[in-house]
């Protein structure tokens, strides 16, 4: 918009009045532009904003990473010993036992798929409740001893700390899974078709590979009421670089180390999938589109039959009950009949 008016200014006859008018319009446009810009930074009154805009980093939007986080619960040798082809990492809150159990009984129980070893790990932070009562801590410990699939790191588990969780996941994978080809970060409210996923991965590049629902040119939310609000001080650009939606993205195991190296140079933002996209841009690695556009999905289209579950890799569900239901439907459907449709 600004460029075209400058262009017009040059073209008009060089009378003083017109020139003035042109400058005035330009000035007003820039003024409006800057006002909207500054208005997006949080809860600071206007004159102050002018001064605090660049140096102040609101900690809630730019979380503490890199930082040395340790593990309260770990499986130090399992990945190394099992050498799985694919590792599924599921971030989940400590108190969400129901989600973990449902996944263990549905897609998380598939340990050999198309002849490849697949293993799952739940990634937890610390719970606020844990400080008050010992019960949850004790329950999670018992669960870990029983299933050997819990990794618990020592930061507070909250929405704003999800970037920390993701980076801790990359740290864990790069140091614990030397003989693994791929990993996937997948949310706990997702239907995952592990068979279709492994099928895609068997034909995929082994290096510099990341895929999922790739978003391009997503605008940065500057509205304070948005769940994804991002102040200019934390991220000044208008749109995000391409990134794979956090509901489920897959990557080759050479990437965790590279992303960790990049993170030392890329300022953290609290939206975890965006941050991974920023690190990928820093590395100059392009995200790969899935072989079919309808494999990684967010929502199930209305009116589709149960054959739908045999054709996708991901779909967001409402809750654990729905996952159990969908899993039953998926188990009973005739896959070869669906393929003929
Ligand atoms: C995590 O999030 C909470 C609140 O969202 C915050 O108070 C805490 O300092 C954050 N960081 C770590 C490392 O726990
Ligand atoms: C790595 O895994 C492959 C197949 O999963 C196996 O054949 C190979 O022996 C493993 N190598 C090591 C060093 O564990
Ligand atoms: C599944 O569908 C195929 C193709 O329509 C059919 O030949 C087969 O008998 C079906 N299997 C079962 C168990 O219904």
UniProtKB/TrEMBL annotation:
InterPro entries: Glyco_trans_31 (IPR002659)
Organism (species): Cottoperca gobio (Frogmouth)
Record membrane topology: Single-pass type II membrane protein
Pathway annotation from the record: Protein modification; protein glycosylation
Main localization, broad class: Golgi
UniProt lineage: Eukaryota, Metazoa, Chordata, Craniata, Vertebrata
Main EC class the enzyme belongs to: transferase
Subcellular location: Golgi apparatus membrane
Gene Ontology molecular functions: N-acetyl-beta-D-glucosaminide beta-(1,3)-galactosyltransferase activity
Enzyme Commission no: 2.4.1.-
UniProt family annotation: Belongs to the glycosyltransferase 31 family.
GO biological process, one term: protein O-linked glycosylation
Bilayer-crossing regions: 20-38
Keyword Membrane: yes
Keyword terms of this UniProt record: Glycoprotein, Glycosyltransferase, Golgi apparatus, Lipid metabolism, Membrane, Signal-anchor, Transferase, Transmembrane, Transmembrane helix
Pfam families registered for this protein in UniProt: Galactosyl_T
GO CC terms of this entry: Golgi membrane
Name of this chain's protein: Hexosyltransferase
